[in-house]
Amino acid sequence: MRYGTKTLIIGLVAVLLGFFVYPTAYNRVADLVKLPHFFNVPPFRLGLDLLGGTHLVYQADLTNIAAGQSTGDAMNGVRDVIERRVNFFGVAEPLVQVEGTDRLVVELAGVKDVGQAIQLIGETPFLQFKTERPVAESQAILEAQKKNQRLTEDPYFVDSALTGKYLTRAQVTFASGAAAIGGAQVSLELNSDGAEIFKTLTEQNLNKRIAIYLDGSPISAPTVQSVIPDGKAVITGNFTLQEAKDLATRLNAGALPVPISLISQETIGASLGQQSLFNSLRAGLYGLLLVALFMIFFYRLPGLMSVLALLVYTAIVLAAYKLIPVTLTLAGIAGFILSLGMAVDANVLIFARIREELHQGKSLVVAFREGFHRAWLPIRDSHVTTLLGALVLYLFTTSIVKGFALTLGVGVLVSLFTATVVTKSFLGLFVGPQAEKHHWWFKALL
Fold first, then answer.
1. For the chain, N or C: smaller number of CB within 10 Å?
2. What is the domain count for the chain?
3. Measured distance CA(285)–CA(333) in Å, rounded
4. Does 60 share its domain with 186?
5. How far apart are CA 133 and CA 165, in angstroms?
6. Angle between the 71-88 and 114-122 helix axes, to the nearest 10 degrees?
């Protein structure tokens, strides 16, 4: 394929991606000439430090995890439940991740009300089924508590292996003949593992009570009349219809496998987020402008072609951020700016190779071809090593550094393409017999 054809295709794709990144530019022109608007484009996803929001840190109580369950499984269960919870309530782009062995970080971009955020997370119920203690054991605990001993123990019920992690569905039902007010109840359906545990519990506790605790408080303690093999249970507690609906909604959003407590909270205001975004964009624009001026001043026509390739690079990278999608943070923007520098560095390396070929007395056409060929290996090696570093950062670090690693990795991959394909196509338009007569445009290479 000729360089002219390649350049035309690259240019058309770049313009299309530019409109994808910033559709407002196209839409304004479309309004003037009565054309349809650009198709619906998703906005950039902004992180907590740019959009503002709430940062919460929770600590999980792992002292009473179910037998056979690891702390990692328990924390992953908590994370999954809270992700479903905040998604259920429509919080945009929540970040929920485990830190260490017992801590959970929750970032809710766009949520400025800390109380609201805490309520969203805190209302997620911790559901437990407890079996009745023997009378003698209960009396012993009560006597000890009168002496200020064993104060944290429940004197009437003991934890079982059945918790809310086995819940598949909750719905509002009514007891036969019950009035709507005070007669609403919540029916539970357990998964196959939960059904087996519940069957064993009911077998071992016939004519005894099994208490249902929600967030550490007993809400129902029915007596087992028969073995229940199908994994279906009912929560009764003199609920109004609205209370039963709210409870069913909360349970369907997910019951926590272990209890959690809030240990840290931080709010980033909208003004800080907007100011951070403005400063970041300004820094990126200034950096791009300075690089462009340097390349054009020092390399003249090749420098101008590298700047055009850099614009194509920017359009591709920003479009990729929307398509993946990437949640942009200050660290992520730093990764983008760093990859921008690498894209320019690859062009500088190519031009240096072309200069070496020209100094050996070769024609511009031959030097152009050999320069790109010889520059490929060092460009490839430098980009691969940077990609490996970005991969390590992404796999083994926390959210802020992950964002930096992701944007850096995407930028490096695109840089590899623009340096070896786009710049070559653009510059190839001007390399030919006629170029030998206009050395001024290539003076930096001669």
1. N
2. 2
3. 12
4. yes
5. 23
6. 120
Arithmetic mean of pLDDT over the chain: 82
Tokens of 50: 């740019």
SS (H, E, C) 334-355: HHHHHHHHHHHHHHHHHHHHHH
Closest by CA to 311, choosing from 22, 79, 3, 4, is 22
End-to-end CA distance of the chain: 28
Torsion angle of C-alpha atoms 387, 390, 395, 397, degrees rounded to 10: 170
Q: Which of 108-122, 135-149, 222-236, 432-446 has the lowest mean pLDDT?
A: 432-446
Q: Distance between alpha carbon 381 and the CA centroid of its chain, in Å? A: 30
Residue 329 falls inside a structural domain: yes
Cα–Cα distance, 118 to 375 (Å, whole number): 55
| DSSP β-ladder status, 95-99 and 217-220 | unpaired
Distance CA 440, CA 443 (A): 5
Question: Are 257 and 282 within one domain?
Answer: no
Asked if 29 and 155 sit in the same domain, the reply is: no
Q: Helices (H) and strands (E) in the chain — how many of each?
A: 15, 13
In whole angstroms, what is the distance from residue 39 CA to residue 303 CA?
34
Domain, as residue range, for 71? 53-267
Instruction: Please name which of 155, 160, 106, 104 lies closest in space to residue 131, comparing C-alpha atoms.
Output: 160
Structure tokens at 282: 């300004």
Residues 20 and 24: their CA atoms lie apart, in Å, by 9
172 DSSP 8-state letter: E
In sign, the C-alpha dihedral spanning 385, 390, 396, 401 is: positive
User: For the ranges 33-42, 263-272, 394-403, which has the lowest average pLDDT?
Assistant: 263-272
High-pLDDT (> 90) share of the chain, %:
18
